[in-house]
Amino acid sequence: MSKRSIQATVGSLVAGTWLMIPGSVSAAGYDPYAVVPAGTMKIDMADVLRSPEKYRSTPQEQPDLSTLGKATATPSAASSPAAAAAATSSATSSATSSATPGKLPAGWVQLGEVVQREEIAMGLKAVDPEPSAAWEDIEGNQYPRKGTLYMNFIGGQLLGGGSDNSAENKSSLARTGVYPSFAGSEASALAIVQAVKEDMAELGVRIMYDKRPSKTVPYTMVMIGGAWTDANLDSPAGGVAPGTDCEARFQRHVVYVFDKQSSTVGQEAAHSWGLDHTLGSDRIMSYEGGNNKHFGENCQAYCLAKCSDKPTEIGCRPIHEKYCGKDSEQQNDMAELHYIFGTNEPDTEPPTVTISQPADGTKFDSGTEVKIFSEVHDNYGGVGWKLLLKKDGEVFVDLVSYSGDESWSLANIPDGAYEATVEAEDHADHVVSQTITFTVGPVAGGSDSDGAPTTSDTSDEGGESGGSGESGSDDEGGSGSASGTAGTSKDDGGCRISPNQGAPLGLLAPLVGLGLAWRARRRQR
């Protein structure tokens, strides 16, 4: 039975149940990753004072590959998470390798070897091949973009129970505890790095391994090490990656590689960017064993019945058909990756940042809700930015705009002198910023002693989204599909792919005409 026949059969069995759930079945345009911010992010300064850790970025632990392959002692209770990760990697891997299988998140189903969002796996919804104009108009989302792949060999504390956010060590497939480090030597790790660099040499993707990217810039993190039982999987796999993120519309995934094959690293990363399995022993996206694998430069048949007797796609068929033709059941790896990341030309142009409101030196009356409006732009997609807020020289807020908000509303702000900075960073290590100052305090009359203007508010250029220290929707990630056998040396590229828990976008019909024009403009930047 074909994949579509199976989906249609399963879909007919559950359609009655789904149709009883309001909004569960939508028209074209569904995409669990293309999330549009609600508007201005609201930050309650009273909450900042109560829970400062929610609003201040913690430093990233930097990798030290020289510790790989060396026996370490059990850490004390006072050890840092990073130290604990290095010291307990062998013990953790040994303990979890015999652990019971994990439990997949609610809202996902398993069909054969695929773990998917129910609406995609059951054939009730399909990802639209064109994202909405509103999503494409968010800075950083445009194509082509530059990207970063961080190869994490040292393990560390991962936080589960939510969606992916590589910068905050959040993974929808993480199990409680410390994820183990790579069991091989530093030389083995460097050999994998070199092979992955060669595999992605033609793309606008930088490979990092000896230094962790800053939280500001979006990146995909590959956890290299451990076993399938170290993640929330219910059956063996060679690796795992978030699925159904067609054209990498989300940019902060966490993926896993349980073997020591460079091709598995490339395959899991590419799954998180929207590529399916194909046939061909020379292809990175293939299960089949082989040497000198590469991403295909021509349309290659999907790996369906030959790989499994159950559906194994990640839900991006409409994207593949843009390059290989409708109903072709083929995928062109490099065509899709070049669309997302362009080519490997250097990025010599830094981003730009402009704070349009408030004006530098503005004085606000006590109790005023201060609104900060900015505009960030870069010549490539993939740029990231954050808000820094200092009061009397002390950092109060250090928030990465994970969901693309460019404006913030500060409520219940205490009296004092403030410095607000919007800082942007791209994948070429260009860091730029703009800073303005303002004061909050009792104001008599309409101006200060020097005649400077005062205000009780600034214009509101949009709705507000709840702020809790992580820019509203900070980590729209997913989980995965698997295949292959853990613990073997065969280059089978096995993996499990799974999607995000996100909800469909609202209908944007009034914006379609205008959106097409915006889409064309932004893609040509």
Description:
- With 525 residues, the protein is of the alpha/beta class.
- It contains 10 helices and 23 strands.
- The protein has helices spanning 3-19, 45-50, 81-97, 118-121, 133-136, 186-199, 262-272, 317-324, 333-341, 512-523; strands at residues 40-44, 108-111, 114-117, 147-152, 156-157, 178-179, 205-208, 220-224, 239-242, 254-257, 300-301, 330-331, 352-357, 362-364, 370-377, 384-391, 394-400, 407-411, 416-425, 431-440, 454-455, 464-466, 496-498.
- The protein has a 6-stranded mixed beta sheet, with helices on one face. Strands 17-16-19-20-14-21 form a 6-stranded mixed beta sheet, with no helix packed on it. Strands 13-15-18-1-22 form a 5-stranded mixed beta sheet.
- A hairpin with a 2-residue loop joins β16 (384-391) and β17.
- α6 crosses α7.
- The longest helix is centred in the first third of the chain and has 17 residues, at 3-19.
- It is globular and about 80 Å long.
- 49% of the residues are buried.
- Residues 1-27, 72-98, 447-452, 458-492 and 499-525 have low confidence and may be disordered.
